[in-house]
Task: structure prediction
Amino acid sequence: MSKGRGDKAAEIRRLMATEGSAIEANTKGFNRKRREAVAELDNYEELRTRAREIKEDAIDRLPELIAELRESVEENGGHLYVADDAADANRYVRDVVADEDAERVVKSKSMTTEELDVNEALEADGVDVVETDLGEWVVQLADETPSHLIAPAIHRSRESIADLFETVFDPADPPETADELTTFARTRLGELIRDADVGMTGANFVTADSGTLALVTSEGNARKCAVTPDTHVAVAGVEKVVPSTDDLSPFLELLARSGTGQDLTAYVSLLTPPVDSPTLDFDDDETPLSERESDREFHLVLVDNGRMAMREDEQLRETLYCIRCGACSNSCANFQHVGGHAFGGETYSGGIGTGWEAGVESLDSAAEFNDLCTGCSRCVNGCPTKIDIPWINTVVRDRINRGADPEGTDFLVEGLTPDEEPGGLDLDKRLFGNFATLAKVGSATAPVSNWIADAAPVRWALERVAGVDARRDLPEFRRETLVDWARTRTATVTDPTREVVLYPDVYTNHVQVERGKAAVRTLEALGVSVRVPSVPSSGRAPLSQGMIATAEEHAHDVYGALAEHVDAGRDVVVIEPSDLAMFEREYERFLADAAVERLQEHSYEIMEYVYGLLANGADADALRAGDGHEVAYHAHCQQRTLGLDAHTTAVLDDLGYDVVTSDVECCGMAGSFGYKDTYYELSMDVGEDLAEQFSTPETRDRTVVASGTSCLEQLDALLSRPSRHPIELIAP
Amino acid sequence: MATTTNPTLSTFADALDELGVALTRTTADEFAATLDDVVRDPAVGVPLPFDVTYPDRVTVDPTPAALERAATGVTPATFGVANYGSVLLPSTADGAEPVSLYPELHVPVVRAGDVLPDLPEALDRFGDMARTDGASTVVATGPSATADMGELVLGAHGPEAVHVVMLDE
Result:
């Protein structure tokens, strides 16, 4: 067990050192350009909504659409084959290639053929298979796997490609610059395409009404592969079928923008094969193009390979809405540092990769990298079809937990951690998932609990048994919780304008008690009466560990505890953004519609609430003025996904603080992630980006504030100066 | 070059400019002389469905070997897409697709009246052609490009330059 963790940590360390810098530069560039490109698009949200609707409808009607597509393809003179699995698809492709007596197949980039291992199947028959996408060719020459859905060689620098070409080809005049490398590849591949017998492509979309394939590319190699040889084989997952050509434009307008920030890629081929273009034999200097044969063979292989089962699976079904743009990878802080070779399974990588691997490969393959999703949700707003990617990852995590070997059941642990999870659940997950129980015991026995937890033998045991990295400071539990403190104090508001329930999240209640007190003082100063009742934890901690049943129990308990306050007209104010995000997003999966609506309608993030109070006439003079005080602010990732970060900066601005904000996706901590020894170093590596932004000449002397507990802990680990919650800055 | 106040055409011109694609406007009468200035030798082309004549420099309906030697390929564009600077290149039996793809310079010829405001409009027209005639097209936006070799390079597998010739009626 701990050996496995150590191996994984070593692999992550190796990838960060070798591939990290190229991946980081490329993904961050894509991500920045995506944000700029979608910001310029007036109807971006409308397009996402439309794309989502089309996918929902298409997957719903898939069998019917495939039947319609079959008619269209056959009417055009092509062949359609629906393959059950990889072996079936490969058998069909091998037969086609054998019928052509083909010696060489040229391919354009296709993740689906990667999934099938078509190349290996053909090579076993003695067929020369050549990838013609430049990135894919690099990966093929290096005998590697793609490290990104749309940019397979994203992990390689120009220098390493130059070295690779030199090693493989030993050219007289080795190419060095990007131009020279491209020319070298173009020339080589051009010769190979010229004499190829079969061209193989994927398909981004296939329209049932006309049998048209949409191929989205920039280089032009897919065009060459499709029209140069006289046989074209297209391979695509069944989920690529959309009803009609009218449905293509929202996807085409979103795909490149989401992936790389381009409006459109250079080429979008809309082929209705077999195409009329004449076949090409470049040795022919006699026959004009118009008199050449255009008798083309076309085969469309639609691959099921688990997809129809995903369609029946209520939770994995959404994965089929994926249009493979890679935005979830580019916006993921962890992916930006390790890339798809760590953050990937057999074929697919990145945020949506777990859903794909769980569906088309196995839970084991998904388990290889599922933990790298911290649930920060930064990918959510970038997904062109609005897939709830963190939720899919949580579901897969839950299934991995449940698939775990129940033989290791430890009844002592079961007894200590009264959750809804199976006995085989990893101890570390169980420990972090039941953090609320731990915190209760910790506070009750503080400060002794803190001394014990910090004692060397205990840290050693925690690391060995539960994978809690000894380099990470543990939270220090407070003897007097926020709830205790509030119970014994006298309120200062006599004639309240409003009444709120301050939600005592686990950290604020047991660890970050000061920010809770600051929140109470602030609200009271603005004329609001505050109650701090004992409310169960939100369920965020078990949810992060994939313990969905436990999280759901928490959701019901929390609603039960808050409902009477909401009924009494009290607003719910939440300090910890990840808990508010739980109310706003995951509770929709757990609670009745009416319940979750009521809770959401009356719940606010603390700074959002202060913003609202000030906007409605509360006296800002009651708060501590900024007087130009220089502040560096890091908003919590989930808070940003919900669009709630702007309130904090607005309040600070209004009060006269001078604020600069970080723009990194995430601090790298995301709750328990940074505590685990497997991920500690990655967590710190991701955090370095934030530390750098707050260590420039402009920012290094600024007071650091952050909204989330994890962010505060990470910033404290990264910077020599302390950080605090913005509410502590403005509280009187 | 004629000036215009037609908003669709000026949008098209701006979008092409942003893509680094040259645009030359001409008339049917001036077409041969205009094209003569635009192409690089050796140049090949496919028959155009417009009432124009090719200059002698362009080999119309070339053999595959001549295509492979060519530095310029001239082909018709069914539509232009103004906001993206795209052109829709039909795949035809006389080889418009490879002629637009293999030479280093591609010259699409589009009628001013066929420049449409946006992609949905162009796809709407294309859809009818795909359903009834099994038509194929390439929505081409700027030259071929790759970023796989460490930085953006134009002319990966396809043309490194595009020069749109627009016919004013």
